Queue: 2 jobs
Job 1
Amino acid sequence: MPDSNPIPDPSQYTRSQQLFLAAPEEYQKLVRDILKEEREVMHLLRRPEIHQKIVTLVRRHIA
Amino acid sequence: MKLLRLTLRNFRQFRGEQELHFADLDERNVTVIHAENGFGKTALLNALLWGFYGHDGLTSDFAGKDSILNKSVAASSIPEIEKVAEVEIRFEHEGHRYRLMRSLPYLQEKADSRKTLLTLEVTRDGQTFNDRLPDQKIRSIIPKGIAPLIFFNGEGIDRLAMEESADQVREAIREMLGLSLLQQTAEDLRHHNVRGRFRTELKESATAEIAELLQQLEGLEALVERRKVTREQAKKNLNATEAEIEAVDASLANNRQAQELQHRRQGLETSKAKAIEELGEVTRDLSKLIAEDGYSLFTGSLVTRGRTIVTRLRNENRIPARVLNVFIEDLLNSDRCICQRCLPEGSEERAAVEKLLTTAGDQNVNNAVGAIDNALGRLEELGENTRERVNELNAKRLKLKGDITFYDNAIAEIHQQLGNRLGEEVRELEDKRRVLQDRRDDSIGKIHITTQQIEDDLAKAEQLRKTIDAAEATLEAAELAKRRVSAVEESAKLMDALLEAETESLVPMLNQKIHEHFDRIMDRPHRAELTQDFRFSITQQIGSNGERVDVNQSTGQRQITSLVFIASLVSLAQERAKIPTILRGLSGAAYPMVMDSPFGQLSTRFRKGIAEIVPFLAPQVVLFASSEQYFGMTGAVSDQLENSNRIGRRYYLTYHAPSHSKDVSDELVIGNQRLQQYFQADEECTEIRAI
C-alpha cells in the first residue's frame, strides 16, 4: 500500500489497494516515498522544495 | 473541532470589541443569530473566514475586501498604532484548546491588506504555547478546501444539487474526506519542475528528430492545460449565468401576468433538456454501432459473390471432396492400391492412381470453405440486424430532433408573448432573460468545443508518445531519461486511478447518510441518491412493486438535497478513521456548520423541513437568519427550532445608522420580548447582543 495502515487480508483489498498492488513494484516504492514527502507539506501555503524532492526520489528509484 | 467564542475588534461595521459565545453542548448545539438583511450577517460569517484563512478566505459576495478596519476608526484621530482590526476565535480540537488571533493594523491595510498578522495559542495539558506555523496548523485542522462547505451562505447552496455541479460535488467529497493529497501529488508529478525536467534530460540525450517530437508533445500538453483553464472559466460563467436566469425565472413565476406562461415555458424547457439528453444518447449509440458493425452494411456484394463460389464448388462436387489427397498419397507411399494391386514405379496402375491426385480434394480446403460459408451467413445476418438497428436509431433521432424543434418553437412563441403583450416589468425581465440565454448558449458552446478540442489534442499527444517511444527504442543514451519520464507519467496516472477509486468507494457510504438525513424530512416515497457520476437524483416510488421514477427537483428540494449532502459529508468526515482507505493517518474530524440564511425564499413546507434537520446537520450548528426567514410563514422555522429544544445560545445584531431599509422593523419580537434592533446614529455600526 502507498503509505497505508496494517496490510489487510488480500481477499478484503479495496479497489484502490488492488490498483496499487497491480502497479510495478518499482513504481509502488516510488509512489510510497513521494506520498511521504507530500504529506509533510500538504498544509503549507508555499511548498517550494517539493518538486526538487520528487525529482531526487525519481532519480534514486529509477537508476 | 468546536467553536467556542468569536471576538471582533474594529472588524468592518463591528466597532470596538464585540463578542459571541457559541452553543457547545451536544444536546443544545444550535446558536441562532437574528439579523435583518443589511445588518451584518455576511460580515459576521466573513469574520470567521478571515480569522481562519485571512484575505483568501473571504466570500465572493463580501464587498470591499481590502477595507477590513472599521471606517470610523480608520478616520478617527486616535494614534495610528492603535488602529487595528482584529478577529479572535477560540476553539477546541482533539482535546486541545486554541486561541487564534488575526490582526491587520491600519498602516498595513493601506500598504497591503492581504498581509495580516496571525498568532495561534495552543493549550495542551494545562500548558499554553504559541504554534510556530499557525497557518499550517489551522489548515491541517480545517483544510481550506472544506471552508465553503462548513461556512456558507445558504442562499444559492441549492446549486450544489444541480446537474452541472457534479465536479464541485466530487471535489467536496475529496476535500472533506482527505483525498486531496492524491490529487496534489498527481499535479506535482506532472509539474514542469518534475516531468518537465526529465523531459529536458531526455531531449538533451535524444536525436534532433526526437527532440523535435518532444517539443511538439510539450506544446500540445501546454495547449491542453490552457484549454482546460478556458473550459473551467466557461463552466463558472455558465453556473453564474444559470443562477441569474433562475432568479429572472423566479421573478416571472411570481408575476401574476407572466406566471402561467412562465410555468408552461419551464415545463417545455425541462422536456427539451430531456430530449437533448436522449438525442445525445441515441447519437452516441449510432456512432458506436457504425464504428463497430457499420462495415457489414457494405458487404452485400461480397456475400453474394462468396455464396456463388461456394455453390459452384458444391455443384461441381469439389466440396466436399469425394477423395482426399492424403488418402491417395498413403496408397502411393505403401505401393499398394485399395484393390491390393501393387503400384510399382513406372507402372500403368501407379500412373492411374497418381492421376487421381489432380482431382482429389484437401481436407483443409473442405474445412476452410465450410468456415467461409458459415462466416458469410453470419455476415449476412449482422448486415440485416445492423441495417434494422440503424434505421431504428435514425428514426428515433429524427423524432427527437422534431421534438426539440417543437419545443424551441413553443418556447420562442412564449418569449414573443411575454415580450410583446404584457407589462413593462415582464418585458424587461424577458429582455434580460434573452440576453442571459444567449450568454448561456455561448458558454455551453464553448464548453463543448473546448472539450472536443481537448479530446482531439489528447489523442494526438498519445500518438506522438507512441512515435517517440518507437524512435527511442534504439537509443541507449536516452533510455534512463525515458524510464524516468515513464515512471513520473505512470505514477501520476496511478495517483489519478487511486483518487478515482477512493472517491467512488465513498459514494455508497455517503448515500447511506444521505438516506438517513433525507428520510427525516421528505415523504417516504421520495429518495435522494448520489449517482456514481456525482449527480443527485431524487426518485419517487410509484405503485407497490417498488418501481421508482426520477423527479424533477424544485429549488426547495435542491436546497434540502444540498444541505443533506453537506451534512452527510460532515457526518462521514467524523467517522473517517473507520473507513478503509489507501492513505495512512486519515483521522476523523467533527466540523461545525455555519449557515447564513439557509431558508432563502423557500416555501413553508421546505422551510419546516430544513428547520427540522438543522440541529442534526452537524455536531455544532450556527445559524444566521432574518426575522422574515425565522419567524415568517406563520412560524415555519421558529416553531420547529424552538420545539427542538436545541437552541443553546441566541444573539441579535443591532444596527446603528442614520437610516435603514423601510422593509425592516425597528424592533425584533421574540415571544413576549420586544428588542430594539435599529438605532438612529450618525455613524454606521453593528453590535452583537445576547438574548
Job 2
Amino acid sequence: MVKILVTGAGGFLGAALIERLLELGYTDIRCNLRRKSIIPKLETLSKQFPQASLEYCIGNLKSKVEARRAAHDVQIIFHLAAGLKGDPADLFLDSVVASRNLLEAIADMKPMRVVLVSSFGVYGVANLGRGTIVNEATPLEAHPEWRDGYAHSKLRQEQLFREHQQRNGFELVVLRPGVIYGPGGGHFSSRVGVMLGGSLLHLGGNNLLPLSYVGNCADAIVTAGMHGQSAGQVYNVHDDDLPTSRRYLRAYKKSVRNIRSISLPYFALRLLSKVLERYNRYSKGQLPPVFTPYKVASLWAGNKFDNSKLHSIGWRQLVPTAEGLRLSFAAFRAELDRTELNKDKASMKFPR
Amino acid sequence: MNIAVVGCGKIADSHVEEIRKISSARLVAVCDLEAIIAEQLAVRYEIPCWYPDLDRMLAEQNVDVLHIATPPHSHLGITQKAVSAGCHVFLEKPLAINATDARLLIDCVQEAGKKMTINYWPNFETPALELKRFVVDGDLGDPVHVESFIGYDLGGRFGQALLADQNHWVRNLPGKLFHNIIDHAISKVIPFLKEEKLSVLARAYRRQSSPDDIVDYLPDELRVMIIAGSTSAYVTFCSHARPVSHFLRVYGTKNTVHVDFALRSMLVEQRQTVPTALGRLLPPFKYARNALGQATRNVGEFASSRYHYFAGMNRLLSSFYDSILNDTLIPIPYAEILRVSEVMDEIFAQIYPVI
C-alpha cells in the first residue's frame, strides 16, 4: 500500500479528502497539520475506519526542515495547504514558499506523484466575453497581480510546480476547483457578493456559480489523483447542476436566514469600479481599490463552465447539487442557532 | 534620491506606497532572502529590480536610502552593510533586539557620517504634531502624568499571522508579542520624561486561556508604570478591549490633552473658569466645538487626499529625506530612540526574567 501525504489536512477540504481516501480503502495516510488542536477532528474520522493508520505530522511547510519531515518516505502527495486570505506577502509565504520547500524536499524521491489543488482563480477571464465557457483550455491569467493576491499566489504556485516537475520528473496532476462549499464552509463566495455591515451586496446576478460540494470535490481530487492516465493533466472541478447566484441567495434566505441584500446589476458595478479606480489613482490610494474594472470582469461578468474532462476519467457527482445545498444550509442554520444559544447563555450570566 | 527596500513582508507594502508618493524619491529595487517574496512585491508595484542578495543589490544599485523592513535581529548587520555602501537607513521598529544593539547601530551610522531614523509614524500624524505645538507654546504647562494606550487585534492581519505560525520571528524576540508593538506606545511618553533616572514597573499576563497551546504561549496584556522625577507615565498594551484604541493622554499643570490616533483628533480639557453649576454646563460645549473643529480638519485632509492610513509615515519619510538632502536635523533625536530601547529592555527583563 502506498504512503500518502495530505498537506492542509486540517482544513475544510483536507478533512473531506482524508475521509474520501479512507472510504476508498487507502489506509496509510500522513496528515500534515499546522496545529495539534486539529487532531481530535481527524481522530473522530479515523475511528470509523479501524483498519486505517492516520499519522499526524505537525509542522508548517514554511520551514524547510518541517517540509522535509512531512515528505519523508511518501509516494503520493495531495498538496492542499495554501493561504486563503491575508496580505499578498502572507499568501505567497503560505502558498508559494511553502510549496517550494515541499518541492525541494521531494527533489530526489522517486517514484512520486504530486496532486496539486489549485484554483479557478488562475484563469484569465477578464478579457473574455460574458458567457464564455471556462474549461481547461481557457488561457491563464496574464496579470494576476491586477486581480488579487490569492489568484496571484495560486498562479505562481502552479508555475513553480511545473518548473520543478520538468526538473525532477515527478508525475503532476493539477486540479482547479471552483467554489468549494458545504457544512463548515463559508456562507457566501465572493462570486455571490460581499458583506457590507450586516447586509449582502449581491453582485452575482444570474451568473452561474461553479459550485463544488466539499465531498464531491474531495472525490474528484482522489479520482484524478489516482487515475492511471492523469499525469501531466489539469482538471477543472465543479458539480453538474450549477445554480445561479440569485437562486443560491434565494434558497439561502429561505433555509438559513432572511439576510438583507442589495442587488447591484453588472453595468452599475462596472461603472462604480471605474469611478473607484479613478479616485484611487487621483487620491494616491486614500481609499483601497476594492473594485476595479479588471476584478469586476474577472469575478462577476458571468461565465459558463465545463467539467467534461473530469467526467472523461470516470468522475461522477456523488452528492446532487440540491442535496449539497440542503445539507449546507441545514449546517449553516445550526451554526447560527448555536451562536444565538451562546449569546443567550452569556446574557443569563449577566442579567439586566 | 534612489531608494531601496530590504525585507518584503507585508509592512513593506506601506513603505513602497509612501515612497512612491514622494517626488524626490525613486524606488529602484527591493530585496528579500526569499526571492519569491521580493518578486511578488516588485511585480505588484512595477519596481524595476528585485534581489535575493543584499550585497548584490547594494553593489549594483546606487542606493541613497535603504529602508530596512526585516525582523529586528537582522537590523544591526544590515545597517552596518548599508552605511558601508554609502546609504542612509530608515528602519522599521523595533530598532534592534536590545538597547546594546540599538546603541551599536546608531554609533555605526554616525561613524559613517550617515543618518538614520525609525518608523514611529503615528507620532507624525496631524494631531500628534498639534500636540507638539501645544506643548512648545506652553499651553500644557509642565507634564504631570502621561498615559499611552495601544490596543491590538489578535484577529487582525498581523495578529493572525503570528498566532498561526509557531515559528514566527516575533515569538523569538525577547519581549515576544509586546516587543513588536510597544515601542509605538513608549516612544510617545519618552519626550515628556526629562529626568535621567527612570523607575519602571511592568506586569504581563494572558487574559484568557486557549485550547491551542501555540496561542496560549503568548501573554497578550501588558501594563507598565514609569516614574521619572516629578513626571509619571502609564503604558498599556491591550489585546481584548474594544474598540481597538490608540491614544495618548497628557496631564499638564495648565491643561490636559487627549490625542486619539485612531480617530485622528486632539481634544483639550481646559480648566473650569466659571464658578458654580454654570461652570459644569459649559465644558461639554467647548469639547463639542473642539471635536467639530477636528472633524472639519479631517474632512479637509480627506478632500485634499492627505488622509491616508500612513499619512504620518509619509510626513516622517519626507522629513527624513529632507534632512538628508538639506543636511538638517533628523526628525527623531537618537537619544529618544535609545531611551525607548532601554525602557523596553527593562520591561522585558521584568516580564520574561532570564532564569
